[in-house]
Amino acid sequence: MKNLEKIFNPKTIAIIGASPKKNSVGWGLVKNILEGKDSRKFFYVNPFEKEIGGIKCFSKIGDISQEIDLAVIAVRAKIVPQIVEQCCRKKVGGIIIISSGFAEIGKEGEILQDKIIKLVKSAKIPLIGPNCLGIIRPSIKLNVSFAPAFPKPGNIAFISQSGALIDSIIDKSLSENYGFSFLISYGNEADLTLSDFLLFVNKDRQTKVITVYLEGLKGGRNFMKVAKKISKIKPIVVLKAGRTEMGKKAVFTHTASLAGNYQIYQALFKQTGIIGVETIEELFDIAKVLAWQPKCKNGIGIITNGGGCGVLMADYCQELGVNLVKLDSKTIQKLKDSKIMHPAFSRNNPLDIVGDALSKDYQIAIEALLKQKNIYGLLIIQTLQIMTEVEKNAKIIVEAKRKWPEKPIVCCFLGGEMTKKGVEILEKNKIPNYPDLKRAAKAMKVLIYE
Amino acid sequence: MKNLEKIFNPKTIAIIGASPKKNSVGWGLVKNILEGKDSRKFFYVNPFEKEIGGIKCFSKIGDISQEIDLAVIAVRAKIVPQIVEQCCRKKVGGIIIISSGFAEIGKEGEILQDKIIKLVKSAKIPLIGPNCLGIIRPSIKLNVSFAPAFPKPGNIAFISQSGALIDSIIDKSLSENYGFSFLISYGNEADLTLSDFLLFVNKDRQTKVITVYLEGLKGGRNFMKVAKKISKIKPIVVLKAGRTEMGKKAVFTHTASLAGNYQIYQALFKQTGIIGVETIEELFDIAKVLAWQPKCKNGIGIITNGGGCGVLMADYCQELGVNLVKLDSKTIQKLKDSKIMHPAFSRNNPLDIVGDALSKDYQIAIEALLKQKNIYGLLIIQTLQIMTEVEKNAKIIVEAKRKWPEKPIVCCFLGGEMTKKGVEILEKNKIPNYPDLKRAAKAMKVLIYE
Question: Residue B194 has what pLDDT?
Answer without folding.
Answer: 96
